[in-house]
Specification:
The complex is a heterodimer of chains A (258) and B (350). Chain A has helices at residues 43-49, 80-86, 102-113, 118-131, 135-138, 151-164, 181-194, 207-213, 237-242, 247-254, and strands at residues 5-14, 17-27, 32-36, 60-68, 71-72, 87-90, 169-173, 199-203, 216-222, 229-236. With 258 residues, chain A is α/β, with parallel strands linked by helices. Chain B has two domains: 15-104, no CATH class; 115-344, MetI-like fold. The longest helix of chain B is centred in the N-terminal third of the chain and has 35 residues, at 71-105. The chains are: A alpha/beta (258), B mainly alpha (350). The interface between A and B is medium-sized, with 32 and 26 residues.
Chain lengths: 258, 350
């Protein structure tokens, strides 16, 4: 089910501004890969190139290759919509659809793509909400609006919505930065369970979080403001946090920079 | 004990003298009383009474507050006072308009008036009604909405969701230009087409002119509503692998449907009162004509104009009653729009 991602020589632009330059890495299936690095170094931009959401921003443009199990996402004839069904995404701020109920929010991806029966939908919604550890909290009010939930619940609702379409890869862009420690813990536990089924890539500013949840960690940095962000190194999380091979990584992790 | 002594010695720096809460009302009542006395004494008009009391109120507020509370508080009070006076000044024309229309219109406005035409009544006689004008207005405005609302909403969707570069700029520019087109010009444009094809006045010709007037208003209001939809919702939907057109149809439009409906209703209200193009293209009719595609029709604003031009007591009464019906029509539309907006608004669910 889960798929491997191979990135080679990826450069992304916003108009004429080069946001990230020449990034190559491999993301292993059924594992959690964390991206860390200072603000503005292009972690989120890079994440968004992995499911072709980067080009949704006006002026967004990408050079290089992203292979999803040997298929180039930027190859000719590739449908970005199909790519996004394989590579799901959870955003920084919880963003449930305000006009839809909890049930409809989870079913949104399936229903908007069509071709599902009511009974099937019910099963998938239950499975997805259980998968996101939210079922017990919302099973009695599936018809209430999703925006009535707390922030942490909303974020888990968004995760349920993302996994309902059965993607192969799940991208998470700082999924806990707007949440309190208890909700964060719930999401981190969830990530640990989800990696059995999905390939997970998570952007985080929280070093402890990266150390707790990820198997591999990638450190991004930029030479100066206005310069493109670059991948400094990627390695097993344990190694990055104990004995990184690049000095800049150690400086960043231990809080000594500049 | 020592604390109390210290408190007595040092007066609070945070507490100053302040006017009692009822003072603005008292000052207002006082200035109105003075203005009425002065006005009645010197024989001024009521408008002048109002102006005097407004100015007196502002001056008295500033003077008293400056004396008691200090200059900063006085400025604060005068700003509040200006807001209130401006509010009341704005209310005067609105209330007097509604008042005059209701008082004069209610005289002949009854079921008979609403259900009969002018077919057998001369303008100089009592009786008659506006049934034919209501039918005409409903059909012309309805058809205009059927044309303008979809085109306007789709144009706005193009501008917000797809429009890039020169084409979008050009569309925006021409929508702005169209917003400023006077209604008589829209009427003349359709009239020139009718003359080319040698056609006689009919209801749908008026609808087309009204649609030209309505379209830019719908585009503008819909555009603003679509821009209010957070980009995060679009991205959330796209990231689920939903195609862009379905995202617009199932996420963006439902989120903004309340505001879009309100905008369309307001545009309808605007064209419902148009007289000039109707006069040119629909011509007016004393009889009931249910077919908007053939023969002249009547419409409410045109009826008001023609009755008032007839210039006798009965015709005046009918003109006012028709005006009242027109205002009621627009007001009902507004209420419907508000109800829809509230019903469709995104729910908070707490």
């Amino acid at each position: 089910m889960a798929k491997r991602i191979d990135v080679s020589g990826l450069t992304a632009f916003y108009g004429s501004h080069k946001a990230i330059e020449d990034i190559s890495m491999t993301v292993e299936p059924r594992s959690v890969t964390a991206f860390i690095g200072p603000s503005g170094c292009g972690k989120s931009t890079f994440l968004r190139t992995l499911n072709r959401m980067h080009e949704v921003t006006s002026g967004g443009r990408v050079e290089g290759k992203v292979l999803l199990d040997d298929e180039d996402l930027y190859g000719p004839g590739i449908d970005p919509v199909a790519v996004r069904r394989e590579v799901g995404m959870v955003f920084q701020r919880p963003n449930p659809f305000p006009t839809m109920s909890i049930f409809d929010n989870v079913a949104a991806g399936l229903r908007l793509n069509g071709g599902y029966k009511k009974s099937e939908l019910g099963d998938i919604v239950e499975k997805s909400l259980k998968g996101a550890n939210l079922w017990n909290e919302v099973k009695d009010r599936l018809n209430k609006p999703g925006s009535g939930l707390s922030g942490g619940q909303q974020q888990r609702l968004c995760i349920a919505r993302a996994i309902a379409v059965e993607p192969k890869v799940l991208l998470m862009d700082e999924p806990c930065s707007a949440l309190d420690p208890i909700s964060t813990l719930a999401i981190e536990d969830l990530i640990g369970e989800l990696k059995e089924r999905f390939t997970i890539v998570i952007v985080t500013h929280n070093m402890q979080q990266a150390a707790r949840v990820s198997d591999r960690t990638a450190f991004f940095n930029l030479a100066a403001v206005g310069q493109p962000g670059k991948l400094i190194e990627i390695d097993d999380t344990e190694r990055i946090f104990s004995n990184p091979s690049v000095q800049a990584t150690e400086d960043y992790i231990s809080g000594r920079f500049g | 004990m020592s604390n109390a002594v210290i408190a007595e010695k040092r007066p609070s720096t945070l507490r100053g003298a302040s006017l009692p809460k009822w003072s603005p009302w008292a000052i207002a009542a006082g200035s109105v009383a003075v203005a009425v006395a002065v006005g009645a004494g010197t024989g001024l008009t009521k408008v002048q009474w109002g102006l005097i009391s407004g100015l007196l109120f502002l001056a008295a507020t500033y003077g008293i507050a400056a004396k008691v509370e200090g200059r900063r508080q006085a400025k604060d009070r005068i700003a509040t006072g200006l807001v209130w006076v401006a509010f009341l000044v704005a209310l005067v024309p609105l209330i007097s308009l509604v008042w005059v229309t209701v008082v004069r219109g209610i005289k002949v406005l009854d079921v008979y008036f609403l259900t009969h035409s002018m077919g057998l009544v001369a303008d100089s006689q009592p009786g008659g009604g506006i049934y034919h004008a209501i039918i005409g207005s409903l059909e012309q405005v309805g058809l205009a909405t059927l044309i303008a609302a979809p085109i306007g909403v789709l144009t706005a969707i193009y501008l917000v969701e797809y429009g890039r570069g020169r084409l979008a700029q050009a569309v925006t520019f021409f929508v702005d230009v169209m917003t400023g087109v006077p209604s008589i010009v829209a009427g003349l444009f359709i009239l020139s087409l009718m003359l080319i094809f040698d056609m006689q006045p009919f209801g749908f010709a008026g609808s087309m002119a009204l649609a030209i007037l309505m379209m830019p208003v719908v585009v503008r209001s819909t555009e603003e509503m679509l821009k209010l939809v957070p980009n995060e919702l679009r991205e959330a939907s796209l990231a689920l692998g939903v195609p862009k057109w379905r995202t617009i149809l199932k996420v963006v439009l439902p989120t903004s449907i309340g505001g879009i409906t309100t905008g369309i209703m307001l545009a309808v209200a605007r064209i419902a009162g148009e007289t000039a193009p109707v006069l040119l293209l629909v011509f007016g009719n004393r009889f009931i004509n249910n077919n908007p595609f053939e023969g002249p029709q009547q419409s409410l604003p045109l009826y008001v104009y023609q009755q008032y031009a007839a210039g006798n007591e009965y015709a005046y009464d009918r003109a006012w009653a028709a005006s009242l019906a027109l205002i009621a029509f627009v007001m009902i539309l507004n209420l419907v729009a508000r109800a829809i907006a509230r019903w469709k608004a995104p729910k908070t669910g707490r």
